[in-house]
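Teaching soon. Invent one.


***
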Amino acid sequence: MKKVIIGLSAVIVFYAVVSGSHNFDEHKHNTLDDFKIQPIAVRHDVIEDYVSEKELPDDAVDSMYACVSQMLFTKDKDLLLDEIASWCLTNYENKKIETYVNFDNFEKGFHQWDGSFIELERRIKGAMNDSDSYEHVKTNYRLVLNNNPRAIVTTEFKGTNDFGGIVKNKISANVDIKTGEITEIIQ
């Protein structure tokens, strides 16, 4: 029986170490760059803990998370999460929190390995003569945060043309940040 208890204790300790902490105090000194690489579920848990710690109502979680999420993409990557959360709290208290956009769906649209925007790459390949010749070069984006928050995503790629030559091209698309969906292809 003693071996079973020791074994179970080791599994619990291992799980605690691997799963990490999802409370705000453990992450508050993270830079935005460090916090951004956390899984989305962990980021949600951390902000939910922050909202609870500040004794805000449960319905404040989504708007506080959206504020932090937008700042992950728009503020200096070296700022600390504690400072950003404090700014969001001030915006919440001043009733200026509803303008922020949750970037999760936009973020999920990017391939983790090469940074390509998955839906744009699919559309490019669908329009090519030889989709097997597609080679991703780079993808970048520019944010437009107004009444219609969107990103202009541009992908540079190589592929074979009608004459068998390899050509370099680029294409841009408007992407709705809230949904992560392409709304328009821009040539």
